[in-house]
Amino acid sequence: AQKVTQAQTEISVVEKEDVTLDCVYETRDTTYYLFWYKQPPSGELVFLIRRNSFDEQNEISGRYSWNFQKSTSSFNFTITASQVVDSAVYFCALSEDDNTDKLIFGTGTRLQVFP
Amino acid sequence: EAQVTQNPRYLITVTGKKLTVTCSQNMNHEYMSWYRQDPGLGLRQIYYSMNVEVTDKGDVPEGYKVSRKEKRNFPLILESPSPNQTSLYFCASSQGNRNTEAFFGQGTRLTVV
């Protein structure tokens, strides 16, 4: 069965530290899509990245980077030189290759960045 | 501006009093869905719709109804709310081909007392 596991419930760091948020997924499909969303204290969900299962290239966007490894079924998210504004709950999600756009979410990781 | 609009943002109601949370998108998306977010459980899909007049159950549909009479609107209906439906609700829309991300509304925080 499909599943997304974010084992880290809460992480606290001091500003400028690097931090990695882990995401492990389970799926039987060979074609699937992985996502990261950010939920700041204001509550909305902000899209960060989408990755399909055939693209294992790592991606960097500013201070954000993502490491996709099919061999370990992981899609980890690293924030370099964290800032207070990065404080949020981060969700990893999986979408399988069916006829729906259903997202299967992990339970989220709350990141607190202290000044 | 592309957006998904939910109303209301906050709602406190009593057990058994029917309520509707509205959702509207302006992107001509075919796929719309409702999720609820609960502590320690992440977001779980309640219902989804792949097009007008086409709806189906998600993972936690009990106690909810939806309709899709127009492409842009996808209201969530609680006929007889109960305290276990106290949650944060999100409406989402997407193109329906998994090639793009889902756009989420601002969320509706519902409390049933």
Quickly list its features.
heterodimer; A: 115 residues; mainly beta; four-stranded antiparallel sheet; globular; B: mainly beta
Name the average pLDDT of chain A: 93
Compute the number of helices of chain B. Answer: 0
Whole-number radius of gyration of chain B?
Answer: 13 Å
Average pLDDT score of chain B? 94
Helix/strand class of chain A: mainly beta
- Greatest interface by residues involved: A-B, 23 and 29 residues
**Separation of termini of chain B?**
36 Å
Helix content estimate of chain A: under 10%
Count of extended strands of chain A: 12
> What's the number of helices of chain A?
0
Oligomerization category of the chains in this entry: heterodimer
- Give the amount of beta strand of chain A, in percent: over 45%
Q: What structural class results from the helix and strand content of chain B?
A: mainly beta
Which residues of chain B sit in consecutive blocks of at least 5 with pLDDT less than 50? none
- Globally, the shape of chain A reads globular
Helix content of chain B: under 10%
What Rg of chain A do the Cα atoms give? 14 Å
Q: Summarize the main sheet of chain B.
A: 7 strands, mixed
The percent range for strand residues of chain B is over 45%
Distance between the termini of chain A: 41 Å
The best one-word shape of chain B is globular
